[in-house]
Write a structure and sequence with these properties.
mainly alpha
Length: 493
């Protein structure tokens, strides 16, 4: 093994070894060879994509998808049923297929990093920029204050360019990521980070979706970036132990939030945010959150919450198992029709071609290729099938392997474009995190939407990074540090 590669990917030998152990453990515990193999796969792909010079967002996204793919079958093996599904015949085959897909994703991402190794190494080897955390917090506060004061509806502002507006708004989150990176090396930035987290969570709650979880995931990934078991210094050993001790309750907190959200808070809060319409301002909606939360806690039922969370997380894997029974026995392979639709949708911009047909919801895919009658556009509902089932519908097993490899490689190409537009590494890491967390974390996402979304976000973020951020960066760094700021070494390769 190349010593440089070993240093850059320090866990590529350790994690597969652990995967063998935990794979054997899960195989025995759940009485399933498929689950055991899938466990080995997730450890292996995490090892091959965990870089020492980047926060581990890529392995985190793969692991999160893996939970969606395998978690439902684990639940079925443990409790004898799976919420929302009565046909479990295809679950084992689904795990084998998705495991092949995850392996292809890991290999594709690693191949992409190797193809552009010099550019990534040059950018990420830069010293950490000396950004003033107070100014960065002020910027984040000002940008998110807009959503607290005004109800912004991009489609109402400019329907043809709604996605452009959404991406401009999402660029705000990049600055929160940058603040999180600053807090790693500057202890004085931590208080600003926690204040910014509070503000962003409030704004994310206003969407009515579970986007607030993105903030918690960010904190978790930043903590993982500082967990470096391959470094043996006394300080690093102590830090590693602290991260493990805080990580366990942190993960439990995130799980608890997920259970509370799916167990009743989601519906009650959406009644406030969505059904109030224009009659209430965002600040008026937020004022009601404490009472809604209090009622949700009082009426919380753990068994119901667990079923709802499992059903939400595992629906994509369940539909995938139906597809494997339905295609090609009942519905033939499409031979690339779904992929062609995705490419056309991604390469024809709506703001230039406003007559481009709207993709609509994804429920028709579930109905047609999984044989399940689910709610659709007629009720304003979209039920996702997932990109791996779509690859299978087009080309079978070869489609899963080849297209998953190509999908991961393409994402690294997009990261390479962001790297070319970045003047310093923090903004590159922030944009990379935003791109991957939005378009590489959801197992049941439609490929047509994630392909178009990833390309659009890359173009818009690259323009902002090249032409807007340098001015912002000059303001963020054109000041002396406050006396008493404490620094620690930035993690290096």
């Amino acid at each position: 093994m190349n010593p440089a590669q070993k240093t850059l990917y320090p866990l590529q030998g350790v994690l597969p070894f652990l995967g063998v152990f935990f794979g054997a453990l899960t195989m025995v515990a759940f009485q399933s060879v498929a689950i055991g193999f899938a466990t080995l796969v997730v450890f292996s792909v995490a090892g091959m994509t965990w870089r020492s010079d980047l926060p581990p967002i890529l392995p985190f996204c793969l692991a999160f998808q893996w939970i969606s793919a395998v978690g439902g079958t684990m639940f079925f093996r443990a409790f004898g049923y799976i919420p929302g599904g009565d046909n479990t015949a295809g679950l084992e085959l689904m795990i084998w297929m998705s495991s092949l897909g995850f392996l292809a994703l890991g290999v594709g991402a690693r191949a992409g990093f190797n193809a552009f190794a010099k550019r990534f190494k040059k950018l990420l080897a830069q010293p950490a920029p000396m950004i003033n955390p107070k100014r960065l917090f002020m910027l984040i506060f000002a940008l998110y204050l807009i959503s607290i004061v005004f109800d912004i509806a991009p489609k109402a502002i400019w329907f043809g360019g709604a996605q452009i507006i959404y991406n401009l708004l999402d660029f705000r989150f990049v600055f929160l990521i940058v603040l999180g990176l600053v807090a790693i090396s500057d202890a004085s930035a931590k208080k600003y980070l926690w204040m910014a987290v509070f503000i962003v969570v409030l704004v994310q709650l206003l969407t009515g979706f579970s986007r607030f979880k993105e903030v918690f995931f960010l904190l978790f990934v930043i903590a993982l970036f500082q967990w470096r078991p391959w470094e043996r210094s006394k300080y690093q050993k102590s830090l590693n132990a602290k991260i493990v001790m805080l990580g366990v309750p942190g993960a439990a907190f995130i799980l608890g939030c997920g259970l509370l959200w799916t167990g009743g808070l989601k519906e009650a809060w959406r009644d406030v945010v969505w059904r109030s319409g224009a009659s209430q301002s965002p600040t008026e909606n937020l004022a009601q959150f404490s009472s809604v939360l209090e009622k949700a806690v009082a009426n919380f039922d753990l068994a119901h919450a667990v079923d709802e969370l499992v059903q939400r997380v595992s629906s994509g894997s369940l539909y995938f198992s139906y597809v494997l029974q339905y295609v090609p026995e009942i519905t033939p392979f499409e031979n690339g029709a779904i992929l062609y639709r995705a490419i056309v949708n991604a390469t024809v911009p709506r703001f230039l071609f406003p007559e481009k047909p709207n993709l609509g919801g994804d429920s028709w895919l579930v109905r047609h290729y999984a044989g399940v009658k689910v709610s659709g556009d007629e009720t304003g509902t979209s039920v996702g099938l997932g990109y791996m089932p779509e690859f299978f519908i087009d080309f079978g097993i070869a489609g899963i392997v080849i297209l998953c490899f190509a999908y991961a490689f393409l994402l690294i190409v997009l990261l390479r474009i962001l790297a070319a537009s970045s003047t310093e590494k923090f903004i590159f890491i922030g944009m990379s995190y935003s791109l991957l967390s939005a378009f590489f974390m959801t197992f049941d996402a439609s490929f047509a939407k994630i392909l178009a979304g990833a390309i659009q976000r890359t173009i818009i973020f690259a323009v902002l990074a090249a032409f807007v951020y340098p001015t912002v960066f000059a303001w963020l760094t054109n000041t002396k540090r406050r006396h008493g700021s404490r620094f620690i070494a930035w993690p290096q390769q």
